[in-house]
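Continuing the series of single-chain predictions for the mutant panel. This is the parent chain; the variants come on the following pages.
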Amino acid sequence: MKTLLIYPPQWYPSQPYLSAPYLTSYLLSKGWRAEQRDFNVKSYDYFLSPAWLRRAVAKMEARLAALRAKPSVAGREKAVIDVLSAGLKFSDAIIARVEEAKKVMRTPDLFFDFDVYRQADMIVKAALKLTSDAYSPSVLTLSTFESGTRAEESTRKARSASRDRETNPYVELYEEVFLPAERWEDYDVAGISIVGISQIIPGLTLARLLKEKYPHLHLVLGGPILSVNAGQLEGHPEFFDDFCHSVVTFEGEEPLRLLLESLKNGDSLADNPNLIYKEDGKVRTGPRRVELRFEDIPQPTFDGLPMDLYLSPYPILPVLQSRGCYWGKCTFCTHSYIYGRRYGKQRTEAMVDHLQDLSRKYNTKYFTFSDEAVSPHSLNDLSDLLIERGARIGSLALLKFEKAMDERLFQKMRRAGFLFLMFGLESANDRVLGLIDKGATQEIEREALRRSAEAGIWNHAFLFFGFPTETREEARETIDFLRDNLHSIHSFGPGVFLLNRDSSVYQYPEKFYITKVLRDPESDISMNLDFEIATGMSREEAQEMNRQCVKMGEEHFPTISIWGTMPREHFLLYLDHYGKEALSGKAPMVPAREKAMCQA
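Parent structure:
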């Protein structure tokens, strides 16, 4: 038995993702033959190539000619004509510069010249816009792929979208480039991990093609998206006809191993844990759920991934200090549900060993802690050991506000190499924070941000508007909090509340004055659901408060032109290169190393 594990498009191509590296490492540790591929970064390398873009332009020209040949066009078609005409006007210049733009993203001297970076970023985004125009209404960007028809929310629409050559660029990409490049006859099992909504159509398109073209393969899907929607798949045997033979839900390491064992021995799948499959025309679910202790799972391997293709000048590697969430109570979140309310963390020594091993192997010091939230206790212990060993890292991490976060912790973290912290602020109103069950208050948020900033760390705040029952006045309090704490909040990312399937708000809607959850049978695998509420802001009002927040940022955060442009991985590199003061607009953008030499 030999398995190929695939991470499909679409996700930001600045670093690997951890799903396939963990699964591959675990199977190898148990004596199974396994390899991994990152089709996501490879797809971007191809979409950002002159060969692909010339094909996209030809497709745009054909669409434009067909529209202009019509005796009359509707208003929407006139808008399409304008979009296609504008894209074609600049297409030659974009194609001529796209390879250089990728080179900028991968070359340190070019990458850290912000004017050069910004121009390259514009070319990359313009090139992806050509593909979007060619395959509209689908939209392809560096952060998303949307079908334009909400096909990613529907098993029925996904079936047709996975076959639609007019709107789905992945059909051609897989058939002509990716599938011929692999020796599929060498594998017995292909696993595809679908982590985000934007991967649903690209991932299912790949699964369908593999299932049709290589009938000897057992196609297994996995990932958080399918775990949350496991119950929705039970009524759709056609999903398995089209896309896969089985679905592994929740944590997949041991269930995947057991599936391989059953397939090798020719056993029934009836007793396999965490498994959904079709048998005798019906969708069946395994009788139990199995997870391992996180500290007993081998560290992930990045062997076999094309490290030279990622759009970063240095390798930036994701790591996990923990799996699950140590808090696990936020009422809007599904993370704890996915991990069965379980939490496990790596031993400190093993975590630091892993960081140092990766640093030596890939000649990098840059890491992103991908935990839902790293606990203060873990951060304290990690920082102590990193400092003790003299390990050099540059890292970002996601945190939850805690009263226990004192000056000493943040100073220690900064010495250890934590440059960039991303806090789940959500709101700065105490009543709303209580409903979310954040375990924090505005005062705790303010003090933690102040202490972190004084230690020399860049603070980013995530927040959203429209949590059930939130009023405009309470939302305004959050906007004012951002504006009044410019000294300690350096960047922020606002949004509008989404009702996630299987969150506490979804499970107990009456507690949050939700009078009706709107379930559209057509959107049977939608992650986010609309709802009606008895009190508080409407969705339209929440969107308006979000716009006001963005406007405030444009007025009061002068460096939004930098951090508003970059993905977090690139900004981490800029922080290390120039320092927090320069990226806060309080000092010139002089590389930190040159500044240190001048001061010496």
